[in-house]
Design a protein that fits this description.
Strand order of the largest sheet: 1-2-4-3-5-6-7-8
CATH class: Alpha Beta
Low-confidence stretches: none
Oligomer: single chain
Structural class: alpha/beta
Largest sheet: 8 strands, mixed
Order of helices and strands: EEEHEHEHEHHHEHEH
Number of helices: 8
Radius of gyration: 16 Å
CATH architecture: 3-Layer(aba) Sandwich
Number of strands: 8
Helix content: 25-40%
């Protein structure tokens, strides 16, 4: 399915029935990241998985930025008429989720993020070096976005008023200090550092990811 949002077509998949859940993929990915997870959640939730601007089957206009993708996501939720959906974002999708929860208060009911960083300095040095090298060779705008953003501040994070789950793998490309910083600035956020996991190992295992998300989604008063 497709909707015009902020002047471009945004493609999304929809499955299931029940309370709405929005899934946001990472840099260079698409809604297909969540094919397995959508199957797991569709029995209890109506699941929406869009392709971000400049990714998958969605359109691209103007420069890419986390702020623009957050604006697209908020506009898509509003255009679909979703009432306080829950949102899970992986990697860049997590950054976008944090921006949506902070910048559009009242839009979401819950937020879960994994492998998100607050700034480029939140990436481990060897990974930043690799991305710089790749960008020098390819000039890929999506890689450039990771090198120049995000710039999430304490003030922005402290404005997130919905129950929030912050996750990262023990062997993530994100510095654990940065993951802990994000969680510490969001009022009453729940933090999970996942033993033995890398940036995306558990994300690409639908059973593992569902086992982390479904208890959080099902909680009633977890603020």
């Amino acid at each position: 399915m497709e909707l015009q949002v902020n002047g471009i077509p945004i493609y999304y998949e929809k499955r299931g029935r029940g309370r709405p859940v929005v899934l946001l993929h990472g840099n260079g990915g698409s809604h297909h990241t969540f094919d397995g997870l959508m199957e797991k959640l569709a029995g209890a939730y109506t699941v929406y998985a869009p392709d971000s601007r400049g990714h998958g089957k969605s359109g691209k206009a103007g420069p890419l930025s986390y702020e623009q993708i957050a604006s697209d996501t908020a506009a898509l939720i509003q255009a679909l008429g979703l009432e306080k959906p829950m949102l899970y974002g992986f990697s860049d999708g997590g950054i976008v989720g944090l921006l949506v929860a902070s910048g559009w208060p009242g839009l979401l009911s819950k937020l879960a993020v994994s492998g998100a960083n607050s700034s480029p300095a939140g990436l481990k040095p060897r990974n930043r070096f690799t991305y710089r090298l790749l960008y020098t060779v390819t000039k890929n705008e999506r890689i450039g976005m990771m090198l120049h953003g995000p710039a999430l501040t304490q003030a922005q994070l402290s404005r997130i008023a919905v129950p929030t789950l912050v996750m990262a793998g023990e062997r993530d490309v994100i510095r654990e200090e940065d993951t802990r910083f994000i969680a510490s600035q969001i009022p009453n956020a729940e933090l999970k550092i996942l033993p033995g996991e890398s940036h995306g190992s558990y994300v690409h295992d639908p059973d593992k990811l569902a086992s982390l998300l479904t208890p959080f989604f099902a909680k009633r008063n977890n603020k």
